[in-house]
Amino acid sequence: MNNPPGGNQNFSRVEISGRAKGPDPRIYGRLVEQFTALSSAPIDVSYETLRELPGFRVLHTREQGQATALAFERGELLVQTRSADNTETWQVLDEHGLRAEKAEPPALVRRDPEIERWPVFSVEDRWIARPGTGPLAGRRVWPGTRRKDDLRGLWIASDETEPELLARGLFAQSVVTPDGEWLVVAKAGGTDWCFPNGVVRIHIADRREEAVGLPAADNFNPVAWLPAQRKVLLYRAKDGVGRDGEKPVGPRKPEFHLLDPATGQLTKVTGEFRALFQESWRGLQPAGEAGKVWVALPSAPDEAPGTIVARYDTRRFSLLPRLKIPGVTFSSPDMWVDEPDHSMVFIVNGDVLRLSLPR
Question: Rounded distance, CA 106 to CA 79, Å?
Answer without folding.
Answer: 10
